[in-house]
Structures are given as structure tokens and as C-alpha cells.
Amino acid sequence: MSYLRGLDISPFSLYHGYMKISLPPNYNSLAAALVALFGSSIAITDTERLSGGDINKAYGLTLNNGQHVFMKANAKDKAAFFTAEAAGLTAIARTKAIATPDILCTGTDDGEDVGYSFLLLKYIKRGNPAKNYWEDFASNLAVMHKADTNAFIAAGTNRFGFFQDNFIGARPQLNTPSDSWISFFRDSRLVPQFKAADSYFGTEDRTKITRLLDHLDDFLIEPEKPSLLHGDLWSGNVMCGPDGKAMLIDPACYVGHAEADLAMTELFGGFPTAFYEAYREANPLQPGYENRRDLYNLYQLLNHLNLFGPTYLSPVLSIVDEYVG
Length: 325
Hints:
The chain has 325 residues and is an alpha+beta fold. It contains 9 helices and 12 strands. A 6-stranded mixed beta sheet has the order 1-5-6-4-3-2. Strands 7-8 form a two-stranded antiparallel sheet. A two-stranded antiparallel sheet has the order 9-12. A hairpin with a 2-residue loop joins strand 7 and strand 8 (171-173). Helix 4 packs parallel to helix 8.
């Protein structure tokens, strides 16, 4: 069958009946948010534009009580970016396995000139990596991957997905609950990306893509248990906190196979060998991971193709050929 027709990939779906975690408050103005968080006498004394990030603007806010707040901002109609990020950070924090920035709130503001949406986080000063930084990071990530996922997905037979759709970079990411990891990865990961990139493919490419999607269970396996995934786990989304330990930022969370997170770490240069050795010791991989790794990263490369253009077409087609060429 063809998977490249008739799919609605427009965001933003919320599966409220499944949500079992408390999300941070949302305010209708920045002023209201600051008053609720810090009291009626609070005021911003300095605003510093910070570097980093290609989707949102980042600012450091200095308050008249001496505290510092980190703020992300975007257009008002992009508020879902921040509620999704807050949901992901909240889910990771709930596992109590690895540090994330403390979330203060989300919100929107009409502004003086133009409306905007925002996310407020506790300001984190970057530290210097402690001894065994990578080993500890790997061990903590393994603990997160082994944590119970019932709070993040539907009760009953559904084991994979998330309680809401979110984003992978600037693109929507479907998290429709499924009882099968292979079905979820096909229907909520590969199919939307292939459909969005369809104009890049010729007739022969589409035949191979359909064959790959039809026979995905020949290449992927179901996990021994579902895992909460960061979802976009590359070096730019890991920072060293003031205690010298790794923190996770900018998640694209969902419940899936831990292998998908590990594969992403290897896509753009990889982490040090010590990281992978420590991870495998803490959470041994199912046999054949190396044969599945490129298929997981096909999703990420397709997303880059849809975000950044034909530079990523060759590696996408190379992976398709690797499995069904």
C-alpha cells in the first residue's frame, strides 16, 4: 500500500484524557506571570539578548530582587512550541533521572508593538564538566530510559506515543498513541516526513519508500519495555550545569524505543566512547542495534531535508537503499 497519500500532519493534537502529569502555569501577559511568580513589586531592570537557538529568541532577564530568569520568545501564534517544550521538560523531570532547567511558566503577551509567546525558565549558569561527566550522563540517561512511562501515555494497550503532539525542531511531530513501536515509528515518524518531502522523490524512490514502509517489521523490533525519550538528543541539546553534571534541554519527548535516542547521539559526530560504554553497562542493548541505527536516524535526516532542503536528500536515499535497495 502507499503511505504517501491522505495523511493529515497538521498540529496540534492534545490527548487530555491520558495526561497524568501537571504542567506549569500559563499566563496571558509577561507582567502577570512575573507578579504571580515573584510578587507585585517585581520589575525587570535589564534585558540581555542571548545567543543560540535558530527557532526562538532567547533573553536573560534581571529582576529588581536580584534574580535572573531565562526567557524564550517567539510570535504569539507559536505558543504551542513552548507548551510542548514545557511538557517535555516536565516529563523528563518526573523520571528523577537527569537534570533539566526548572520551568517557571509559559504564556502569551500582546506587547507594545506586536504579540509574542514566551517560556520562562530558571536561569542556569553553565559549569565545567566534572570528572566522569560522560559516564554519569550515560548512566542517568539509562535510568531515564528505564523509568516507568505510564504517566506519559494512554492507559491500557497503548504503550507508545505521548499525551500530546509536539515538535521536532520547527516541524510538527505526531505522537498518536499506538500499541506497537514499529507501527508508531512508521505512522507517526517516517510517513509524515516522507509525505512532506515527496516532491524530492522520483517514481523509483517512491517505490522503494513504499517497500520500506510495508516491510518495516523486517528491520525494526519491539523494545523489551517502552522508554521516555528526549527525542532530539544531540550535543547541542545537552549542557553542563553548575554542578558539573549534564542537563537535558530542548526536548521533543515521546515514549518509544530507547535505541532511537541512542542512534540520534551518533548522527552528528557522536559522543565520546566512554558514554556508550557506560550506557551499555547500565542498559544493555538488544542484539542487532547497529543494523537498526540508520533506520532510526532516517527520521532525523528526513526532518532535516524538510527543514533545510536538498543537502540532506542523498543521505536519506542512501539509507533507503541500505534497507531495500
